[in-house]
Amino acid sequence: MGRREPSAIFLNTGMSGRLGVLLLVSGPSGSGKTSLCQALRDAGEVVYSISCTTRRRREGELDGEHYHFLSEEDFERRVSAGDFLEHAVVHGNRYGTLKGSVLERLESGTDVAMDIDVQGAALVRGCEDAVIQRVLVDVFVMPPSMEELEKRLSGRGTESAGEMEVRLANAAAEMAHAEEYGHRIVSGTREEDYERLLGVLEEARVG
Ligand code: 5GP
């Protein structure tokens, strides 16, 4: 008789006896995905995975809270050290998820939300980690229209005209990947979006 692969249920699940859900959220810049993930964190539903990035820090952003802001050299050093679960160039800057900010938490039963782009999402889907494969749930947040996306992006006033142009140009390319996600949310009000994202998370917790 052939050896059976152990079921993921028998993987180390710490004291809680369950694995956490990995909620991977993508969508074009201005879709509202970051605020949604942060709202889930603020409500105590998830731990938010804090990414590393080489992009400049926006006014009001805190190192270690919104991102770990790294120089190109430090980012590259962490790539070489194998610290990243995934990393990608997005809108001309580097972004990456630290393995340490995800795996141990999932194994101890904590639900984790990741706000990452479509390339990062594909890398996480393709990774061989048995825990991630078991608990990954992916959601794409779509703007109701490109006009609305442009309005939201210019309304938040965090990007220069040049940066906004890059983000809008990339939005169409990102939207083409929406079909790869298990769940899609067409953004409405902030409350509606939040309820729907929470619904996906709750379904994954029991499923
Ligand atoms: P922003 O500069 O607006 O904070 O983020 C720009 C884009 O980078 C967003 O699409 C966001 O989802 C993505 N992003 C943020 N963190 C990561 C990460 O760790 N990995 C990848 N691949 N993308 C990320």
Polypeptide structure, described:
The longest helix has 17 residues, at 190-206. Helix 6 (146-156) runs antiparallel to helix 7 (161-175). With 207 residues, this protein is of the alpha/beta class. Strands 2-7-1-8-9 form a five-stranded parallel β-sheet, sandwiched between helices. The protein has a four-stranded mixed β-sheet with strand order 4-3-6-5. The two termini are 31 Å apart. The protein is globular. A hairpin with a 2-residue loop joins strand 5 (84-90) and strand 6. The model is unreliable at 1-10 (pLDDT under 50). It has helices at 33-42, 72-80, 103-107, 118-126, 130-135, 146-156, 161-175, 190-206; strands at 22-26, 47-48, 52-53, 68-69, 84-90, 93-98, 112-115, 136-142, 183-186. Bound molecules: guanosine-5'-monophosphate. Guanosine-5'-monophosphate is lined by residues 29, 51, 55, 86, 88, 90-91, 95-97, 115-117, 119-120.
- Cα Rg: 17 Å
Instruction: Give the overall pLDDT as a whole number.
Output: 91
- Class per helix and strand makeup: alpha/beta
| Terminal CA distance | 31 Å
Q: How large is the count of helical segments?
A: 8
Approximate strand percentage:
15-25%
| H and E string | EHEEEHEEHEHHEHHEH
How is the main sheet built? 5 strands, parallel
The stretches of 5 or more residues where confidence is low (pLDDT under 50) are 1-10
Bound molecules: guanosine-5'-monophosphate
> What percentage of residues falls in helices of 4 or more residues?
25-40%
Total strand segments: 9
Q: What general outline do the C-alpha atoms trace?
A: globular
